[in-house]
Amino acid sequence: MSSKVNLTPQRKAIYDVIRESSDHPTAAEIIERLKVKDLSFAYGTVYNSLRYLTEVGLVHELKLGDAASRYDGNVDEHQHIQCQICGRVDEVFTDVTKEWLNAIAKETDYTVKSHQVILKGICPQCREQ
Amino acid sequence: MSSKVNLTPQRKAIYDVIRESSDHPTAAEIIERLKVKDLSFAYGTVYNSLRYLTEVGLVHELKLGDAASRYDGNVDEHQHIQCQICGRVDEVFTDVTKEWLNAIAKETDYTVKSHQVILKGICPQCREQ
DNA sequence: CGTATATTTAGACTAAGTCTAAAATAAAAT
DNA sequence: ATTTTATTTTAGACTTAGTCTAAATATACG
Ligand SMILES: [Mn+2]
Ligand SMILES: [Mn+2]
Ligand SMILES: [Zn+2]
Ligand SMILES: [Zn+2]
């Protein structure tokens, strides 16, 4: 069991870029950062690898409502807040309560499997302007 | 002030479809439903109208991480839960607490402007199968 | 080794939506 | 009422993000 994770050189390089990034890069940004390291993979390989890394749980895919998905090397449970002005994405570790999730299960009669909170606001830097 | 809302025939028809729908239709679904009423507008007009209706606050745009945005004629504050199996989207009126939002403002130093919760789970129907 | 399986590659293709420039409507000014 | 101005619609080209396909490579297995 525990089907071993198969990290090919491409997947490893992409995973490295994500872990070295703290800003939740998009696929396009990952491709840029690979290029800086003189690595250039087929377009499709980057997307296939991102899907693979997501599936095996090494990274998380964030869909914040922007056009492009972002990727997160921190797979600990946390949420995100995005600045409406500059677009930066920051971490949020204060999570919703279990009681709240239970209340929703009761209200909707769904079996709640996951929740994602997307907060929008103004970051400290942009507030100064 | 209060810059009056300009509901052209096209915008009105699209708004009507959204209000008559309770399933948060996508642009493509709205176009289908217009066709049933023998209404056919330019592709771009539908998107322009959806943007307009969203901007003036008559509808809400939902980005649940699917490919296409969905539109909601209920503009009262509420959240959504989507079935991972059949894709249907249901309403969630149990909202997060103000305390939780304050905790996030303190943690992140952001001025929190909005929050969107996307819950995923199994709907009662799909659970029976 | 030889064959099956998995992965990468380049490039065609798709889905959702935006943009553009011209035509049609509507509103405002003469 | 007619001209001028502003707004909206339209068709279709274009963009962005991502998937699909078929061939070429690489890896694993007997
Ligand atoms: Mn994160
Ligand atoms: Mn709703
Ligand atoms: Zn900012
Ligand atoms: Zn379902």
UniProtKB/TrEMBL annotation, chains A, B:
> Is the keyword DNA-binding assigned to this protein?
yes
What does the sequence similarity comment in the record state about its family?
A: Belongs to the Fur family.
Record GO biological process: negative regulation of DNA-templated transcription; regulation of secondary metabolite biosynthetic process
> What is an example of a GO molecular function annotated in this UniProt entry?
zinc ion binding
* Pfam families per record: FUR
Q: Which positions are annotated as binding Zn(2+)?
A: C83, C86, C123, C126
Q: Which InterPro entries match?
A: FUR (IPR002481), Fur_C (IPR043135), WH-like_DNA-bd_sf (IPR036388), WH_DNA-bd_sf (IPR036390)
Q: Where does Fe cation bind?
A: H115
Cofactors demanded by this protein: Mn(2+); Fe(2+); Zn(2+)
The protein's UniProt keywords, in alphabetical order, are: DNA-binding, Iron, Metal-binding, Repressor, Transcription, Transcription regulation, Zinc
Q: Cofactor stoichiometry and binding? A: Binds 1 Mn(2+) or Fe(2+) ion per subunit.
Matching entries from PANTHER family are given as: FERRIC UPTAKE REGULATION PROTEIN, ZINC UPTAKE REGULATION PROTEIN
SUPFAM superfamilies with a match to the protein in the record = Winged helix' DNA-binding domain
Question: What's the protein name?
Answer: Transcriptional repressor
